[in-house]
């Protein structure tokens, strides 16, 4: 895919600054339509404003009235509403008018969702990135921020959630309806408007004086209390690490059927049904990282908002890096390190298999083109490198100052660059030019040589990524770790050229020379190491290094030492991902001789290791294991392990297993894990027979 063929899309001009939207809606849930009005307050950005143009798609406008109730002339096109003002207004004026309208068709910006056996009827907004215009006539672009009122009338059995503070609920007993009045007192962008309507159960929580509530289906109530229990704790963590207290009147999490993961709105997050998990589902399908990511958006995206979509990394990269920071704080160093490896891997797969683009990129057909693995995990990895270069204390001072300086504003990448200069005293334009405004990532080829006669270690570092168009040779520091019998020393060197050579004097050859000690750089790495060095590394390095070494030992897959070490690691390493990787390597190269290790792994404390072990056992195609797989399916709590047991039955079973597998396919599970595995197994058996 050549992303450079996409059109250049610039931030649009505008004639006015919208200040406040007062939206009044009467929602007919039976007919799946609404009537409404938006009273718009704005100030011109020019001295002769005579016409106002609003975004309005799929709306039937019936009237436009000025502040005194007199009609204004208007013309409605396919996606715009053009309003002729009664006179000319200047930039020193403020004017108000009201647009009356109806919505009589289904639109993606406001979904009417039918009741099913698992979800109640609901109305759920989906304003990102430019769909507020489908149910509210407005100026619909992120660089314009407004305060807002949402006054919504619905049937008495339904609850209404919107942004900001609940002013009150009034009843209309004759009609059997009531009206919710929500007010957003601080300015935000239109794509962050939320309207959620359903017969929700509302679970009340708090962080001090901050209301924190969970709007869930009635069947979710008990599980939601556990699934969302850490929400105040996560908010408190971000308060402290950002140096900026949560900025809105309240925080709600609301379940929305149409959401897969999550979507931010100001003072609320819309979460998919999978956010509420049973204790069993939580083993493999915890939403905690997504919950943290969406909470982080209350600062990154909501408090400060990208002023145009090429700067969307300010929303998404910071939120993605924030969920890593939370995991490091709460889950521990190893879990967070693995999360960072996983994030980097997601970007590298996109770069290798689809395209590379600059993170700040104004070439897109629609805003969604820029919401990819460059904006999310690559941007998070770039922030991790920036933190490394600036140092922790300076990095977090920059973060706090940026939020305070630009609170409730639309911002650009250049605003952040200026803040870095002002706070750190360092001109980091070179860093941003490389990592934000150019595509790609570093590809290192590292070699080393020990000279016993001179007691000198030579390390050569090549950057080879310039084989790709537009990708630079990077200027970046890297840490080299030297492991000796008495401990470890670390040297930081700066890379500036395509080939760099460094020499170090030691009394004896290091047991391990670790490239990128601390794991700060986003990179691909080719680094030939001896078997002895890798065997030392899997015993003595951090989790990321051990995981790397387990994989690099593939080069010695026939060596008894390597095979034995994989076997030991599959049982003994302290972190599950290393044990899992060791199981996978044994299965890949020596599965037939390690059945005992796989059987032991099938009882591991980590469901990921158990699943990998059951997968390895299935590949043995041993008919005597059929009973074991049935037992694992019936007794293991993990859906992932159960799924692997079903797949394993498909590897060795015959038509007599089809009925059992058919019943398994009917069992409800997260993401249809069991259904998909059972169908895969049945297909395997049918092909074999």
UniProtKB/TrEMBL annotation:
Enzyme type, top EC level: hydrolase
Example GO BP: proteolysis
Cofactors, names only: Zn(2+)
Segment forming the signal sequence: none
One GO cellular component term: cytoplasm
InterPro entries in alphabetical order: Aminopeptidase_N-like_N (IPR045357), Aminopeptidase_N-like_N_sf (IPR042097), ARM-like (IPR011989), ARM-type_fold (IPR016024), Peptidase_M1 (IPR001930), Peptidase_M1_aminopeptidases (IPR050344), Peptidase_M1_dom (IPR014782), Peptidase_M4/M1_CTD_sf (IPR027268)
A Pfam cross-reference name: Peptidase_M1_N
Residue stretches making up the Peptidase M1 membrane alanine aminopeptidase domain: 229-435
Residues covered by the Aminopeptidase N-like N-terminal domain: 19-192
Record family assignment: Belongs to the peptidase M1 family.
Protein name in the entry: Aminopeptidase N
Organism of provenance: Lunatimonas lonarensis
